[in-house]
Amino acid sequence: MPFAFTLPTTSATNLDEFFVSTSHPSLILTATTHRSVLRDALKKHKRLTPASQASHLSTVQDAFISYLPFVLLIYESISGQRLSQVERIDLRQTKELLTEWRCTLSSSIPGREPARVKIKGIHNELAFVLQTLAYTSTLQSRTHLLTVYTFTSPSSEQRAAPISTGMKYLLEAQSVHAYVSSLPHIDANPQPADITPSTASALASLALAEATLVVVMKDDPYAAAVAEDRNKQSKDWMISAPSIPKVRAHLFARLCLAAADHAAKAKGLIGGSGSAGKIDDDLIKYTSDFRRMARAKAARFLGIDAEIGGQAGEGIAWLRGAKKELGMSADEDDAGKRKGLKGLKQTWAEKREDRKIEKGGEGWGMDAGRLEEARVIEWLEAKWVKANDMVSYISAAKLCNRLRLTVAQINVQAVPSFEPLIASMPSGREYHSPKPYTPPSLDPDVLARLRAPPDPNERAFTGDEDDSGNEGGTRVDPVGAFPGTSGQYDASNTYY
Q1: CB 23 within 8 A of CB 151
Q2: CA distance from start to end of the chain
Q3: How far apart are CA 165 and CA 59, in angstroms?
Q4: pTM, rounded to two decimals
Q5: What digits encode the pLDDT tens for the residues 195-243?
Q6: Using an 8 Å Cβ cutoff, are 167 and 217 in contact?
Q7: Residue (of 234, 214, 239) closest to 365 by Cα position
């Protein structure tokens, strides 16, 4: 958590072939240069190792922020929309803009890199730029939240700073996605599934769900206690369950339910988004797992609320309902235990996730936190069941000696069924008030300099990174072929 987006790459495009400005002759040339810088940043980021990509995200974001005011100016001049406070530019389109972007959200053949898609129109170019900028913010949030999991025994101060920063980046991503979904659409060109309004709205809901759950993560000490209990280097032999005020436990439950509602909305929007392609199954599965995990976390906090109020049996029932939400066995005999092949498979999955977190790989958190929540629920259930059974046994023994009754005649609190409790969950409560996105605008001094005609000998920067797409008629090696032998696979060279 959050979702690990893959940043798309784009082709080299000379905007001078498509636009010309009489009032600001240097605008298109400068815009082409900034787009080439952005293209180079995305190319370099793709070729870095996962460990090195985290520190390179700020460079990618700066490249987006530098290019975004120029593409916005072009969009406003062509469409007649006023999205910024910059003066109107006299700009004419000579022919329809044609660029290439690699769609990373659309489903593709497993094991094969998604192909580039030809994008027509300035509207689709702007949508791709904004969507990828939001991906960058989400990835930066992942980078900061990863430090919370890598600490052996994080203190409250060590958890607060990265969590607050990660939440800030998620809210930025949400505002950008919402901006894309509300962008006026004037182009008649078809859109890939990555940039349709429904996809952008779904990603905005998902980012808001993640930001809401980060609020709970900030003040939830149970996950840290379970990590401490699992730490082999820990010197604490006994860990007592952290105490949470009753009112806050109920508040956390409602926040989790609000996050689950946002995730459900995102899943519904993604399922029907885009006629040009289907959204990748990993994202659909993530939204589904996120909703289940958020509802399970809400049930866990409602159980904590009941246990604090002295209703231990009801608290255990809430925990078993949380396990059911996660798709785990809610049998009374399986309290804190893992039996059979299914339990062994879950243990293996948890160990693999721990190794991903230790290495800081790009695949961590793709279960939306279900494994971590399952650990916390099993840990609490084992402690509560053991304490409840012991208290019930001691109380029963005392009453038997005093009243000369059998244990069966003693009225002790039983664990109720969890189905009615899950059905009676309260409504969610919103925490964040998302702010509308304000796109960056050009400085008036920079805009004034663009009025000067460009030097006839000056050429736009076209980039330093080699291209990996099929541009300029270059041949792409077939899958499995040795590099440089693509000519041997030509259909004209066959013997049959």
Answers
A1: no
A2: 52
A3: 18
A4: 0.83
A5: 989 999 999 999 999 999 999 888 887 876 766 655 555 545 455 556 6
A6: no
A7: 214
